[in-house]
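Thread: "does anyone have the structure for this chain?"

Original post by V.I.:
We have the sequence but no experimental structure in hand. Need at least a predicted one for the grant figures.
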Amino acid sequence: MAAKGRTEHLPRGRGALPDPLVRLSVNLSPEVADDLKGYASQKGISVTEAVRRAITMLTFVEDAQARGASLHIEENGTLKEILFLG
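Reply from O.Q.:
Generated one for you, tokens below.
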């Protein structure tokens, strides 16, 4: 996801003071946009919440890996290591 343009701090609620929310514009391929919308729909959440969850998960995993941790998934009795390259 590449952010473009300027960031915009958005007020929340009637007469609210500006909140630390930032509006970003991103460009996604149609396939990635469909995956994101599908995930949000499946979970009953907004696309914005789906993006928040994705960023939180990626940050958590990358921070853990930077500390030397590894990420594994067990599938059909087989343990597989997940590697994030880059």
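V.I.: this helps a lot. The longest helix spans residues 47-66.
O.Q.: and Residues 2-82 form one domain.
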